[in-house]
Write a structure and sequence with these properties.
This protein has 39 helices and 22 strands. By secondary structure, it is of the alpha/beta class.
């Protein structure tokens, strides 16, 4: 069983906060913030959020903060190179350190701080003194060094990841017992602190040695028993470094600190002082929570919530705790009187969860019913279109529109939903506009962990321990046949729909505080939720497609496929099924004698990467690749688009997705518009079938090299900044830097290679990947990358700093604070670790670009001309349908809005065009 935190409010628990380390993590993990005076505040914000959560949830009886003194420590005295590789703290971090100390004092938390002693050692001393008094300890930190202190009575709580480490979790993470962790750290060394360790001894080898020999001393007593000569030799050669490292990682427990337990008893916050600080820092949510209490309460002991307790002030910011499933009753609403009573209850609640069901999953489905929950111990289902034999009388859509419609469109009534966009589309189609969505559990979970499962069923089980009935199981009847939801009896539909509404409400209670704790509130409230409203409008508006042109294009594609198939047969010398991987496998590897490059569980692979590599040796793989590409585009778009057209509107309504791409980019399904290639002739022809209606044109606005511009801003590299500020072609400038030539000496080949390097850097591409993409030797690719980083020193520092921060917090963030978790960055599996490093280097760039496009959409939510409509968003591009007479009015407004959406240190550039179809407009 996973280790749990000790009981909240327990009288025998001391909470010790590693504030210096926490501030550093918050500084790197949270997007830069500042107040109107320009004072940086993001690290302070993270610290305040942590302190509020700790006091609110844990109600500590004893509490202390440990801080570094910033002076020379004993470790520096025994090893002058200790932390010598660390640059001086940035000025904006120093400013925030001072502010955080003010915040801590306003929280009335005692501070442990001593010259020449690091916070980790002070914490070790506090743990030892607490143990002598039979006091349990919660160390609020994430530092692996502090995990040496973990016992059954000492646990470590990483509030950023909400993970608790006891002995079993430490052993699971490192593969050794807590008592062996010090020696594991000594063997591995630590590049961030410049602790040498033993060269070439990584986590796996260190773990294996300690499992076999018990300790560092045991390893050196049994060197002859180590089988691998290279390992034995390096340990022998670097024995002094090993034991020096052991001294450096050992936590001191003998610091002369004063440990008066009663002096550490927590007595509550100085609310007046906090109000002053929050006002200056412009922490509006925290200030509002304080002001909502009226007059400042007296500072008193935190215990059970009361008007005088600091704990009550903090508790007021949090939704009530989720109810147990057994406490919820389900009620059907079948007539106007009951519907009126429901409307009164929902309005009185001021905030409610809602769910919209449809008669089926088909495109022509209509609203089947609405479910509601407001946290009052009941959930309701309003059936409208359940039309099976024997179904009871139900309210009409007109009844719902009259009685519930005013509530649904009232922005003052807060709505909670899961996938609110989908619910809003269903309701709008039924003539029931939705406004006032204040929380979407799907998007909230996506922001907290973009790569987790965001379905309501998964969240119900993961967060609340509730297993929901699925739609498929509800509609599956005898012999596995599916029925439509309108045919599901109400006695089954009621608990299904009402439970989902109830889960939506309880997920708000569970996830909303976490969103605030992780500094994601502004991203949810000011970006994602307003963006959802825009996507509802775009989804319902759709786009016009020239079906006749698609049909003609299909004929051309079929002729191309026939030609490629005949060519493949000619090369093979016999007829075979070009769509059969098994037949192709036999042909390539058995008959043509090509060497298999990789295998699946059951066969030799013929996937795209394999065929691309084999195409250098034989002409058949190249023809098969081309055939597959044409066939895929024909099947995915040319053949499928006509069936996706809505017969009522005559347009195609792709479904826009906010919670799919881990980078934060908007994606689309049915059809997926992101995958229509723009660099191939066939891709451009498919784009050409997306057309404007008569009397209109399509206007396409595309950010130019937005990711490279974001990289320039984030890295502050002087060469990149200068290139973009002076309007140079960035690929030409990079060629000039790498090949050391003037602009007129840059050849097309040079520019092509440096373009690949420019974009390869963004995606963390190594020499093997670059070599493959350019078709050059690996060493030549490595030389290109090395030359790049020599010339772009700022980019190198940015990448290194990003990786160091990610290794510390296992998190990376975008400009707007969007985050992605990278736990594998500490993995012992090399492939997983390298993949996590590539994500860490790319995410701040790609996600920031995605954020900027979303800000542009929000800025352009009001029409740029009376008849203009935003209809598509693909990658870094926005597409508008604009009346002919308004195009010249709309274009400069779109360009101006997109280029001034965020104050980067380099200009944003938008390329804009127009035409009767999407391809012509690009």
């Amino acid at each position: 069983m996973a280790t749990q935190l000790f009981a909240a409010g327990a009288e025998d628990v001391l909470y010790v906060i590693d504030l210096s380390s926490y501030m550093l993590r918050a500084y790197h993990a949270i997007a830069p913030l500042s107040n109107a005076a320009g004072e940086p505040t993001h690290a302070v914000y993270g610290t305040v959020t942590m302190l509020e959560r700790l006091v609110r949830e844990r109600q500590p009886r004893f509490l202390v903060v440990a801080m570094d003194s910033g002076r020379i420590t004993f470790r520096k005295e025994i090893y002058d190179a200790y932390k010598a590789n660390r640059p001086p703290a940035p000025a904006d971090l120093k400013t925030q350190m001072a502010r955080c100390e003010e915040i801590v004092r306003a929280f009335s938390i005692p501070i442990l701080k001593q010259d020449g002693v690091e916070a980790d050692d002070l914490i070790a001393c506090a743990v030892k003194r607490a143990h002598a008094r039979d006091i349990k300890v919660v160390i609020v930190a994430a530092d692996k060094d502090l995990m040496q202190l973990v016992t059954d009575d000492v646990i470590l709580w990483d509030t950023m990841r909400d993970r608790v480490f006891g002995p079993s979790e430490v052993e699971e993470r490192f593969g050794v017992k807590v008592s062996q962790l010090r020696d594991l750290l000594a063997l591995m060394g630590d590049s961030s602190d410049n602790i040498p360790g033993v060269p070439h001894i990584g986590p796996k080898t260190a773990r294996d040695l300690l499992v076999e020999f018990g300790s560092l001393e045991g390893i050196y007593e049994h060197l002859d028993a180590i089988k691998k000569k290279a390992c034995r030799d390096t340990l022998t050669q670097h024995k002094d470094e090993a034991f020096l490292s052991q001294r450096l990682v050992t936590l001191r427990e003998d610091c002369p600190i004063e440990f008066d337990l009663e002096a550490l008893r927590y007595g509550g916050r100085d609310v007046d002082r906090l109000r002053e600080l929050y006002s200056v820092l412009e922490f509006h949510r925290q200030l509002k929570a304080l002001d909502s209490e009226g007059a400042a309460p007296e500072v008193g002991r935190v215990g059970a919530p009361s008007e005088a307790s600091g704990g009550a002030v903090l508790a007021a910011q949090k939704p009530p705790p989720p109810s147990a499933p057994s406490e919820i009753s389900h009620t059907s609403v079948l007539d106007r009187a009951a519907l009126t009573r429901l409307a009164e209850e929902l309005r009185s609640a001021g905030r409610f969860a809602l769910l919209a069901t449809t008669t089926s999953l088909r495109p022509n489905a209509v609203l089947a019913g609405l479910a509601f929950a407001s946290g009052a111990g009941r959930a309701f289902y309003v059936p409208i279109e359940h039309r099976y034999v024997g179904a009871p009388a139900q309210v009409t859509l007109a009844d719902v529109s009259e009685i519930l419609g005013p509530l649904l469109c009232d922005p003052a009534l807060g709505k909670l939903a899961h996938d609110a966009k989908r619910a809003a589309v269903r309701l709008a189609d039924a003539g029931l506009p939705l406004s006032g969505v204040v929380f979407d559990s799907e998007i909230a979970n996506y922001l907290l962990n973009p790569e987790s499962n965001h379905t309501l069923e998964a969240l119900a089980e993961d967060e609340l321990g509730v297993k929901l009935v699925t739609y498929d199981s509800l509609t599956k009847k005898a012999r596995g046949q599916q029925t439509d939801f309108e045919n599901v009896p109400l006695e089954e539909a009621l608990p299904y729909a009402a439970s989902q509404a109830d889960i939506c409400f309880r997920l708000w209670q569970r996830l909303a505080p976490r969103i605030q704790d992780e500094a994601l509130g502004r991203l949810l409230d000011e970006v994602e939720l307003p963006l959802s409203e825009i996507l509802v409008h775009m989804e319902r508006l759709g786009v016009l497609v020239n079906i006749a042109a698609l049909s003609e294009l299909g004929k051309v594609c079929q002729a191309t496929l026939d030609r490629l198939e005949h060519e493949a047969h000619r090369i093979a010398g016999r007829v075979f099924n070009v769509n059969s991987p098994r037949q192709l496998e036999t042909l390539l590897f058995d008959e043509c004698g090509l060497k298999p490059l990789k295998r699946t569980k059951t066969s030799r692979s013929t996937d795209a990467s394999t065929l691309e590599a084999l195409a250098e040796q034989h002409e058949l793989p190249k023809v098969i690749l081309e055939h597959r590409q044409v066939a895929k585009l024909k099947g995915t778009y040319i053949d499928a688009l006509p069936s996706l057209m809505n017969p009522k509107t005559g347009r195609i309504h792709t479904r826009w997705e906010q919670a799919v791409a881990a980078t934060g980019r908007i994606s689309s399904t049915d059809p997926n518009l992101q995958n229509i290639p723009i660099r191939t002739e066939l891709g451009r022809l498919i784009r050409g079938t997306f057309i404007a209606r008569p009397g209109y044109q399509l206007v396409s606005a595309d950010y130019s090299q937005i990711e490279l511009r974001v990289l320039a801003h984030l890295s502050q590299d002087p060469v990149l900044l200068d290139a973009f500020r002076t309007g140079q072609d960035i690929h030409t400038r990079t060629a000039m830097e790498i090949f050391e030539v003037m602009a007129d000496g840059v050849t097309r080949e040079m520019r092509t290679k440096t373009k690949a390097v420019n974009f390869g850097v963004i995606y963390g591409q190594g020499d093997s990947g670059l070599a493959k993409s350019l078709g050059i030797p690996r060493q030549e690719a490595a030389n290109f990358i090395a030359a790049y980083f020599r010339r772009y020193e700022g980019v190198r520092r940015f990448m290194q700093g990003t990786l160091e921060s990610a290794r510390d917090s296992e998190t990376v963030r975008s400009l707007l604070g969007r985050r992605r978790l990278v736990p594998d960055i500490k993995s012992g599996n090399r492939a997983r670790r390298l993949a996590a490093e590539r994500i860490a280097m790319n995410m701040p760039i790609q996600s920031s670009a995605a954020d900027l496009l979303k800000l542009a959409m929000l800025k352009l939510r009001e029409p740029v001309s009376p008849g203009a409509e935003m209809i598509l968003t693909v990658h870094d591009e926005l597409v508008f349908e604009v009346p002919d007479a308004e195009v010249e009015l709309a274009k400069p407004r779109i360009k101006q809005a997109m280029e001034n959406v965020y104050p980067l240190d380099v200009p944003l550039l938008v390329e804009i065009g127009q035409g009767p179809n999407w391809n012509a407009a690009h």
